[in-house]
Amino acid sequence: MKTKLNAIASALFLLLAPAAMAANVAVITLENGANIRLKDDFTWEYIITETVTQPVQAAKADITEQANGVTPPAIAPAASVAAVTTPVAAQSVAMPTAPAVNSQVATTRLTAAALAQPELLGSTAKDGIKITLADTKWKGDKLGLVFDFDSTSNEHVTVVEVEVSFYNDNGALLKTEKLEAWEAIFRMPETYLRKGQHRQSDTIWVEGVNKQQWQKQLISLKIIEIESR
To answer: Which CA distances in Å does 149 have to 4, 43, 134?
Structure first.
């Protein structure tokens, strides 16, 4: 009986797993030059980032040693050390080669289309919940974010967790942080986000964003979790 139940559970998993994860179907370029990604759950999203590789300099210590003409001594492997017990003239010791240094580093940055059309940023939607950056403010080095929410969901939403990515004025990623942009108060139904409502969040404070590098307020939002009652 247990074996039969396991077989049924496995079959159900195989049937339901593809529906649980939305797969990419196609990428389409719009007339304004922006690219969108279509998914098989009838949703879509703007493609606003890309991964690029850039050359990096050698480590600071190595540069200093080369400038001073100092070459660090090579250390032979254990097998070569053991071989030194035989006369030196009768053997040839192979010196170890230095490991290859990766001269490229991958970075995430906004696409040219996103930089040219910043209105593509700062707003996203999922499962009937739309979130938009409404206002920003500074308190010293702390950045305050205020979000607008609009709901067409039939659920009474209590929590909306968002992944927020900040980009500098040149489009390079500064940092990514997860925030509870909406959080209702336990047993206070008037704080729930309901269908047809337009609500605004409290100010959410974030640290680690350089004010001088964030003059254009380039930000992207992604809803990662919605809780409801």
So the answer is: 47, 19, 9
Specify the DSSP element, H or E, that contains 66. helix 60-67
Please state the pTM of the whole predicted model. Answer: 0.67
DSSP class of 185? P
Decide if 47 contacts 35 (C-beta within 8 A).
yes
Q: How far apart are CA 131 and CA 129, in angstroms?
A: 7
Element (H, E) at 82: helix 78-82
Query: In 10 A of CB 15, how many CB atoms?
Result: 9
Report pLDDT digits (tens) over 85-140: 445 444 555 666 666 556 777 888 999 988 988 888 999 999 999 999 999 999 99
Residue 170 DSSP class: T
Contact 193, 149 (CB under 8 A): yes
pLDDT in tens, 129-177: 999 999 999 999 999 999 999 999 999 999 999 999 999 999 999 999 9
